[in-house]
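User: Good morning. I'm curious how guanosine-5'-diphosphate would be positioned relative to this chain. Could you predict the structure with it bound?
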Amino acid sequence: MRDIGIVAHIDAGKTTTSERVLFYTGISHKIGEVHEGAAVMDWMEQERERGITITAAATTCFWTPTYIDRSSPDVKKHEYRINLIDTPGHIDFTVEVKRSLRVLDGAVVVFDGVAGVEPQSETNWHYADEYHTPRICLINKLDRMGANFENSLKSIHERLTPNAIALQWPIGEEGGFSGVIDLMIMKAYKFEGEHGEKVVQYDIPEELRKIAEEKRHVMVEKIAETDDALLSDYLEGKEIPVERLKKALRAATIANTIVPVFAGTALRNKGIQLVLDAVVEYLPSPADMPPVKGLNAKHEEEERHANDDEPLAALAFKIASDPFVGSLTFFRVYSGVLKKGSYILNATKDSQERIGRILRMHANHREEVDEIYAGDLGAIVGLKNTGTGDSLTDPDRSLILEKIVFPEPVIGIRIEPKTKADQEKMGIALHRLADEDPTFRVSGDAETGETIIEGMGELHLDIIVDRMKREFSVEANVGRPQVAYKETILKLAEGEGKYIKQSGGRGQYGHAKIKIEPLERGKGFEFVNAIKGGSIPQEYIPAVEKGIEEATRKGVVAGYPMVDVKVTLYDGSFHEVDSSEIAFQIAGAMAFQEGAKLAKPVILEPIMKVQVITPGDFIGDVTGDLSSKRAKINEMGERGIARLINAEVPLSEMFGYVTKLRSMTQGRGSFNMEFSHYAEAPGNIAQQIVEGKKK
Ligand code: GDP
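Assistant: Good morning! Here's the predicted structure, ligand included:
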């Protein structure tokens, strides 16, 4: 079994590659069953009519590697189950990329053979590094004008990892690209038949022998470097058998010390089956993965192995609304067995759920199953209280698996239902969509009564509004996008809050003294209880914390949420009769506000990583314009015949840039943008933000 995903920059060919994968695996599966060519054609016809579904969060398919003799009686033994986990292409959905990386064991990273590494591939690559995901690369679109395998590989070396090694070499270029040389076994391949379904092996053409030998040498050396015994044999000049090389390469790929690189064109049906072979040969099975860790009911760390006999531990990684069955909760089982009809514990929410139907999604049908075993994936129909990222476990062996940390939204818009009838439906729709997507938030503006939606970019919110219309029939008017500013503090300060009321009836008494100090960027909010000797009784401490936490949501500069602050509660006092939770909550908030004002509060603005590609003629205008947008230009380079600029630009300066860039470059420039970090807004800008907020 393999749990893998295809990761790519938008337009690199992820959809086309996925389609081909499902198509070829469909054929392969059929061959395994019927052992005859005619059935394959039938299946392909049907398939073309019905179309392949590739949008499920996880699709199961089966692959018999091409090097297995398909006519042998035990061909079934060599059939691998591949769960293809969907990863989205656009950067606004980075969160989904992260979420899918959490559940997959290995990834195929697809690159455009013309563009090579693009900015978003870098981001996704770094996420994959964060999760130590083993990877193989496919340099796709080698049939295109301007495609170049070697340059693309070079851009991988320069921008992503020096450990990428070519396992193949292309035969021909651009329109003449006809297949690949397998450097491991030193054979050439071409792909025949209407859909390239016939994989034909032949001898390396004479004119390519020399380059193939050279490239093989590089490959062998790199592999040998990962294994001491192999290295010494290699240095002694011994011929290393292919099986030994493959074994070492598999270990190195799983350990993430080598990234094998393949060549192909999904659209023209060349090379995809060999990438599937590589998935089987080099990417890990669930059993190769280290055990998952989580926190048990006593908050101690426990491990689970990919073993059916261990207690159930599963992770819900995606909630999808399905036109046929309602809500579908996609999950991965890390250990144990998830059974239909059983009761399980949602350990994250500490509530019980009953497992109704379990489905497994295939390319062209869905299968109802009774059980899902360790390492495998499926979808539960109609779970009520389970959200994305929740852990589903054995009721007696609670385990909260590592949480997925999502980035904070950077942009917000006001949204208003068109009619009264839309009003109610809008609330329901937005909450449903927020349940599905942890980077999408809905909030109300207490002062104006308006609804605000926040997300990772303009496109992200456009899609939400569009889905609201299509899936929930809610029409809404949306405002102009607003930057999600934040606030923080720059120095340590102290604050004191006293809330005392003693006029008639029962009084109120709460009193708290705090220290407030800056935290590293991205750390959020931290509360430390340093009360000694009971100056505030234990029972009121959570109330103080709650008051402070609520106060951070409205900062002292312009009312934006305050982040990256640590608050230490160190003293206070109480009253035997008058003290109450609410009084301490208010005292906490007061102390925070006083302290924050003294702690040099500032406004933070989101800074975006921007890459612009433009024909050389316009480079002066484009950089000039970027400079006027407070951009920090980090790199200027070449992309084929075009020029490339990498810069960091505040998000507030980037609204409407699509149109601006188009007019500056006669429609020939393009750009790409993603969130990078929050940074302090300079004084004059902060001033404008405060004034804008007042208006
Ligand atoms: P995605 O955005 O990564 O899912 O990319 P798609 O699979 O939708 O492909 C983007 C565009 O590139 C589409 O027009 C495809 O037809 C085209 N495309 C995909 N693979 C290839 C390829 O190997 N060669 C060429 N020439 N075009 C391709």
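The CA atoms of residues 242 and 407 lie 44 Å apart. The mean pLDDT is 88.
Let me know if you'd like a different ligand tried.
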